[in-house]
């Protein structure tokens, strides 16, 4: 198996992502659509901060890597379904399924070295 040339080991990246999610979501017991933008922003910024700080060679040198972080928060709380009769026409839903989703992305790169623009 080929060795990874990633600046941060994959196991550490998984820990960074988990920590950012736990920090952003805290003890939130339920999906709250009005909070998803804040949660996604906090998750993305937390991950980017950690990636930048852990991959910067020295405190005076800017981060030499490009990063893109995507975060999607999804809710799916299905309602109970009841089916009566022998054909599909008689199926009825006793309660509506509730769904919600918010997706966001963020990126970081050194514009002095690589210019500006999208890289994905």
Would you write up a description of this structure?
- The two termini are 26 Å apart.
- This protein is α+β, with helices and mostly antiparallel strands and 120 residues long.
- The strands form 2 sheets. It has a two-stranded antiparallel sheet. A two-stranded antiparallel sheet has the order 2-3.
- It is 33% helix and 23% strand.
- It has a domain at 10-75 and 102-114: Ribosomal protein S3 C-terminal domain.
- It contains 3 helices and 4 strands, in the order H-H-E-E-E-E-H.
- Helix 1 packs antiparallel against helix 2 (36-55).
List the helices and strands and how they pair.
Layout: H1 10-25, H2 36-55, E1 67-77, E2 81-83, E3 91-93, E4 98-108, H3 111-114
Antiparallel strand pairs: 1-4, 2-3
Using brief descriptors, characterize the structure shown.
120 residues, alpha+beta, Ribosomal protein S3 C-terminal domain, two-stranded antiparallel sheet, 4 strands, elongated, Tctex-1-like_sf
Q: What is the count of β-strands?
A: 4
CATH architecture of the domain at 10-75 and 102-114: 2-Layer Sandwich
How would you sum up the global shape? Answer: elongated
Low-confidence stretches: 80-95
The structure class reads alpha+beta
Main sheet properties: 2 strands, antiparallel
CATH topology of the domain at 10-75 and 102-114: the name is Ribosomal protein S3 C-terminal domain
Helix content: 25-40%
Pfam families: Tctex-1
